[in-house]
Every structure is written in structure tokens, then in C-alpha cells.
Amino acid sequence: MRRAVKHVQLHRIDTTELRVISDVDAGVIAIVQVEEAVIRDYIRNGNWPHQQVSLFILNDLQPLARQVPSSALPPGGVAALDTRTVINLYDLANPRACHVFVNQQMMVKEGYWDDMLAVRGLLAHEHAHPLAENASTHASRGLTLELTLAEKPTEQYMRLEGVLSRLVEQLCLTSPREIFTNLMAITSGFDQAMVYLNHLNVAHACQSLAGRTKLREVLSQEVAQGKRPASDVGQLLLVGDLESYCGLAMEIAPFDRAGYPTAARALSDGLEHGLFPQLEPQFAPTFAAIRQLYTEVADDLAPSDLRAWSQQVADVIVGAVREQGLTVRCAVRQV
Q1: pTM for this predicted structure
Q2: Which of 44, 136, 206, 329 suits a disulfide with 301, CB 3.0-4.6 Å?
């Protein structure tokens, strides 16, 4: 069944035409006002190629899954649409236009829907994606990953192999796009909104520890009952920790790069005091090493140089899980 369109609007912002389409009943006007302000600020900053922006405010992003090829979606493809709050689809060959999609269900779930400063940060980040394209982000699209676990192929190890493959792809291959996008948003005048948004993300990460505690209890009970070896507990928890929280390094490192040490310190303090002590001991040094690599990556790397940098990031992750007894072979290749 096709959804009923509740709002269709057309706005003119300097030389940019903003088209708004929504199937949401309430709250649309406030989101549109923030979008207009973000566009004006980017135009004022002098780095704005778009003549047309289409803003879709939807109950969820399933229409996008049905109408857009997975290859045209951001990293994660169709599978990630249910959990994404905002997505910007753009064509590198046509900088005149972009299409921004807001997922109301996820915005409400994450607590962003009625928080206009968070919305400003989210929209500023998404609009920064095409503006932040550089040699390194282009090179990242020409990399692929080969990852295998040396352990016998049980169901659990096959699941771990899948999780680690997705994790390493995110942290090694697509991370330059997020790093330079965040850097662009911060240095384009959206630093306050980005700091605020990331403080919310740190708070959400700390709140999620309750679920981790329950998982540890369940795993420990299964060990006591002889259903799994004790070594499983640390392995599963560490991989879960890396999957859940290591991506936050992409948020903090751009503040390091942009010369905002106070913001970076405040965010890292929240993690070091509220999160890291509750995680596996390998997590904190792994996070620190990845954050440093994210701070150092240059924006003009040739494909071979970016491959070498990505392999460094992969080696950090491989080293961490090896300490928990998992033997991982991971190689970054050029397509």
C-alpha cells in the first residue's frame, strides 16, 4: 500500500530550491526550519554546490529500500536503513542536487525528534558528506576486505566472523568518509551542534551497559552449566564491545584534527569514566590506537597509501581479539 503524503512544500534559500515531502503528521515544520538554517549556514561558509535539495521526512525508510538500489545507499546498504536516523543520497557526478531522508521512528527512538540542536547536528553532518569528498574518501571506495577466523567453523565462530568482517569494514574501509564528514561539519560552524550530538551519543553508549551486564550474566550461567567454554565469554564480550563502541573514535578524532581539544577531552572523559571501565580490558588501548590513526590520516592519500593505513587499523583490531584467543586473518586489498 502506498503511503499518504501529508506535506509537500517548496522553499527558496538563496539560489537553492528546497523541496519537502513528508508522510508524517506532526513535527515537520520544526525539522524544515532547521534544514533551512543549515543550508543558509553552508551557503554563508562558501562551500555549497547544490541548487536543489529534496528533504523527505518519513515515518521510516522502507520506501527507500524498495526504490533505491543497495549499491546507491551509504555503507550498510538496505540492512542499515531500519537503524539510520538521517541519510543523504548524492551523486558525485552531479553536485547540483542531493536527497536527504529523515527516519522519524529512529529519531524518536534515539530522542532526537524534538531536540532541534541534535537535529541541526544530524543534518549538518549529512550535508557535509558530499562537501567532504577528497582523494582519501575516493580511494576508500576502491578497497575491499578479506577476513577469516582460523578456528573451526562452528555456528558461533561463523557469526563472530560475520560481525568482525562488518566491524573491520566500517572501521577500516569506510571510516575516512565519516572522519572527513565530521571534520567538515565541525569546521563549517556546526561545532556546538556536533559537540552536543556527540555528548548524547556518549550518554547513550553508557546507558547501553545494562544490556551488556545481562549478557555477561547469561554467558556466565551457560559456562557454569557446561553449555559453553569459559573462553567464549571474553571473546563474545570483546567483539560486542568493539562493534558497539569503537565507532565513537570517528566522532572524537575530528575534534582533535580541528583544534578543539576541550571538546575532544570532554567527550573522551565521558567514555573513560562512564564506559571503558565496564568493558573488556583490551578495549581502551584499542580505541586509543584507532583514534590516533583517525587523527593522523591525510586527506590526499593515493589508493595504495590508504590501503596501508586501513591495514594498520585492521591490525589493531586483530591484535585485540587475538588477546582473547581468536586467531583472525585480515587483509585489505585494492579492487
Answers
A1: 0.94
A2: 136
